[in-house]
Amino acid sequence: MSKAKIAVNGYGTIGKRVADAVQAQDDMEIIGVAKTRPNYEAAVAAQLGYDIYTLADRVESFEKAGIPAAGTLDDMVEKADLVVDCTPGGVGESNKAVYEKAGVKAIWQGGEDHELTGFSFNAVSNYEGALGLDFVRVVSCNTTGLCRVIYPIDREFGVKKARITLVRRSADPNDAKKGPINAIVPNPIKLPSHHGPDVKSVLPNINISTMAMKIPTTLMHLHTINLELEKDCTAEDVKEVLGTQSRVRFVGQGITSTAEIIEVARDLKRPRNDMWENCVWDESITIDDGELYFFQAIHQESDVVPENVDAIRAMMELESDGAKSIAKTNKAIGL
Amino acid sequence: MSKAKIAVNGYGTIGKRVADAVQAQDDMEIIGVAKTRPNYEAAVAAQLGYDIYTLADRVESFEKAGIPAAGTLDDMVEKADLVVDCTPGGVGESNKAVYEKAGVKAIWQGGEDHELTGFSFNAVSNYEGALGLDFVRVVSCNTTGLCRVIYPIDREFGVKKARITLVRRSADPNDAKKGPINAIVPNPIKLPSHHGPDVKSVLPNINISTMAMKIPTTLMHLHTINLELEKDCTAEDVKEVLGTQSRVRFVGQGITSTAEIIEVARDLKRPRNDMWENCVWDESITIDDGELYFFQAIHQESDVVPENVDAIRAMMELESDGAKSIAKTNKAIGL
Amino acid sequence: MSKAKIAVNGYGTIGKRVADAVQAQDDMEIIGVAKTRPNYEAAVAAQLGYDIYTLADRVESFEKAGIPAAGTLDDMVEKADLVVDCTPGGVGESNKAVYEKAGVKAIWQGGEDHELTGFSFNAVSNYEGALGLDFVRVVSCNTTGLCRVIYPIDREFGVKKARITLVRRSADPNDAKKGPINAIVPNPIKLPSHHGPDVKSVLPNINISTMAMKIPTTLMHLHTINLELEKDCTAEDVKEVLGTQSRVRFVGQGITSTAEIIEVARDLKRPRNDMWENCVWDESITIDDGELYFFQAIHQESDVVPENVDAIRAMMELESDGAKSIAKTNKAIGL
Amino acid sequence: MSKAKIAVNGYGTIGKRVADAVQAQDDMEIIGVAKTRPNYEAAVAAQLGYDIYTLADRVESFEKAGIPAAGTLDDMVEKADLVVDCTPGGVGESNKAVYEKAGVKAIWQGGEDHELTGFSFNAVSNYEGALGLDFVRVVSCNTTGLCRVIYPIDREFGVKKARITLVRRSADPNDAKKGPINAIVPNPIKLPSHHGPDVKSVLPNINISTMAMKIPTTLMHLHTINLELEKDCTAEDVKEVLGTQSRVRFVGQGITSTAEIIEVARDLKRPRNDMWENCVWDESITIDDGELYFFQAIHQESDVVPENVDAIRAMMELESDGAKSIAKTNKAIGL
Predict the structure, then answer these.
(1) Of C87, C22, C53, which is closest to residue C316 (Cα–Cα)?
(2) ipTM
(3) Crossing angle for the helix pair A141-157 and A235-243, to the nearest 10 degrees
(4) Do B179 and D181 touch (CB under 8 A)?
(5) CA trace torsion D91, D93, D99, D103 (10° rounding)
(6) C-alpha closest to that of A87 among A2, A185, A13, A145
(7) Which domains does chain C have, with CATH numbers?
(8) Chain A contact set for D260 (CB, 8 A)
(9) Fewest beta carbons less than 10 Å away: which of B192, B313, C256, D174?
(10) Which pLDDT score is estimated for A1?
């Protein structure tokens, strides 16, 4: 069987990881990545062996920079079965017409609105709903992180309501422009934040309310999670349920911070020190008077990466069973 | 009437502010401050005109540093009616015997346990309970900030339960040793955190649960507050109630972060850019399905300072009415 | 004698400080400040009693924000003898025509080019050259900090060459947008940096070469200074010379960082915790084989403020002797 | 030929990297690593297949943590031909007696004094001097970074004097305790700093003087380098010389900061995103009036790692030619 031909439009934080994760699978392959600027990331992409495409009016600048383009964005789209759009939030929407015209399937990221595709994807929560779809949106890093724990807990114990604070990193590690350097920025100030409704785009029946802020760190987000449950249960019961989730990882062994979580990823020789799993401090899992509390850290650069692979597999109907796709994706990337 | 004679033991972040705030009142005065090291803070204290005392075995080191001590800690305690103990958390407890022996009243800060004094103080919540007491504990910056809003909201609308996340600055602005530089530290990891029980030391009937972390900023803490209310009310009703609180300040006018709050304090020429009030984003106050949500920022260096002054006034029975003491304290320091 | 009428165009970090410093003098007064946005800084300005002007098309937005404007920028310029332009770097240049047309004198800040005025000012270095001039540029915080120490050392010992690294704060304390959060940014990458030539705009005969970078801090810049001297001298000789400079402050007494320097300013109750002086670690002053080495910290928000006052005094010919102006300015602001 | 048996005492930032780098060579192997605490790093070490040793009184705590120790430190030392001591600075010295008693060779890191071994090592500068030695000290990350560029430039053009500022990261990425969060810390305050003499422990004839500070970043150090040269040359000449150095890497292609350098290492899938080479901005290399200027960034966690491998090879006399050892080490680790 020939592999599904996948293109990545937008080779930044998410795009470059999706490219590598797709390339690691045996049922799909990268036929090209598109980038607008011939910078160091493009140079490494070329070194890694990817065919690089760009906008028609940028071809010359790539030539000059010594990173010749294999063609234009249109050329790349034409060769693909499916495009993963990883362009910056809000930009992706304008590419829809290009993909429709070329008759290719497409995935967008969480920076776009649910309405763009009508289907918001999280592998453990609704894989089967994406089977054969043409357009799918993989939800954001924070929403992915929330769905991964709320879905199985709701299924097992019933979630009466979810009250969550998202403490967000303000810039990715390679971003030397964005701040703040020394401040806390409630964001958005108007409450509740959009993160709750975004979770409902995947899990429509959850009563969820969220508050969010940005803080001066680059490594990971931290969520404080409070869930009122329908059924009586113990912290051990919750650990058992979360313990069955391959994309939830318990952290302990003296790990006190997001910094040490990333160090584990480095020590494990994970590519780009990616921590694809939700990192839950198992010691923090507490049931008190019918309410569940815990901390989880979310690696904003990488947690959606295996989700994109699963979304491809569902849309291309390479596998009909979500659990099997998740296992296959995980194994291929070394999760 | 002669002024109450107040000594400050521990001239650091809190101690130096309490000294200035006491000195600004007309019914109490500073008769000395005690410090263990003759560093730049001691030098400025001398410049500001305070009599500096130290431990018996440190007198010589002050002499050498050109900041002669007025005497020992015991000398200072003897001259005082009341000592405000601002030594580091855990140290203060061991001073109790000294104060008892000298027959002086004493106030400790929130770093000590409730049990040390049996009375935990917050001016708006329980001023009258401190009248004439010998030993009182002024609760921590975070607990003070929580009591100031929970108490009036509970009185007006009834607080069924409080679910709060505390995002804490990791070091004060003048601390160049403590980190983290780039990490989020859930702290404590075991849940719920001690902050809830600490609020109950002042407001025993509140159902409160808290989660806390430390982050790389020095300016202020941020609280995300979620209160289930007994009575129906609107965001406007809540604003009205909080608007009556002299130690709650609404922030808006383009203020997006803790950094700009501190800039307001600087622009107002507040001493040491102190923001004694809870800073609540009024735009964030939201009622949704019987639950109240808002953000508040707490200036950890200064919010307990006026509370210490009020505690002195209650313990020395200089004023029997809490509201009058609060107004008097505020006016004297320029709040 | 009537006071010189001074207007401040651009009420941001520098503008608001210049306004207060001018207002503190007895031979000049603020007749208005101009601001483009009715934000919290404008609100405090109104509270402090300044007449606020704005651009003609912004008058309405001030009205709506409850901070009514006293008139337009043109109205303000018309009433002034001299305008201190504190608009962002590069913007100020375009205002020159406005000032010329109105026939008022004007001062610009270091973000503009030397050529805009033909005279770059530093009080201790060239006060007398500014007497009666119409247009003057007060050099940047870093250049001011360098001139203040290089000028007196050159006069006394001769500076054969100056080799300096400037480690710059990346954003001011109230700026929650700019980063980096966790990176060092050599800036500019091409060497040597423009700071050397800028010093030469004040001290044309100094052989100076500089390298600069931006780092994740907001409080102060740090300079590492290496000067080859013409004459033999000792560290004590250098301390003596710098000790005569009223705008150089020695730091010691356990001060290990820029954070503790700012704490001194806070403890001294300086407005906005401003540290107008160069802060030189006297313990760092070293002579080794004819070369002088030391560290100095520069408070980017405030060191040019007294310089602006002196520039006004020179341009308005209120005082012909630089040393007298410096002393008068210092005394009025409490330096 | 059997491989040289290497043990690593101290499995932290440097130790774990040296273990992996040794393991990647074909003429040496790791026979064990010693660690004092059974934390997450120990758990990953076990997962990576290393035999873990510990202090006699810690064996039980490893057992309890589910990471059984293979024996005591003494057991490990006995089995080794050479121990790489990567214990914290100052601790390593006390281990010398253990190694001497067991009759094994040993390498220490730059945190120890030169006198401990009498030979300070940098591969490109003095490989041959280490041939057959029993005890060697591999110099610190900063000294290594300086020797790598000063040595070849001195050999080619003659270095009359070196004037260098070291802007140092304050904590490693996985350290959530150390600060500062928002300050610059001149360190040491007394000048010149010890880094100059440390370079002279490798290159005794260089006239070098250094100033250093700590800043709030975790990723890399930055050096501003100013060298007076004996011979006339151009920036191109310097680039040519540095271009021949396999452990010097030029950075450009839009890279503006240390953050983007680390991103390159991540994109290249370097283990733990290590950047073993000095990173020199080639655009910054400038010759002005006989003086050379440039910026280089140094990855404190990893630049000494290949140096340790070379030191082992020299001491074990596995290769007599430094250039060949360097090439072999580089190739094996993927540099």
Answers:
(1) C22
(2) 0.97
(3) 120
(4) yes
(5) 170
(6) A13
(7) 4-139+304-333 (3.40.50.720), 141-298 (3.30.360.10)
(8) 40, 174, 176
(9) C256
(10) 63
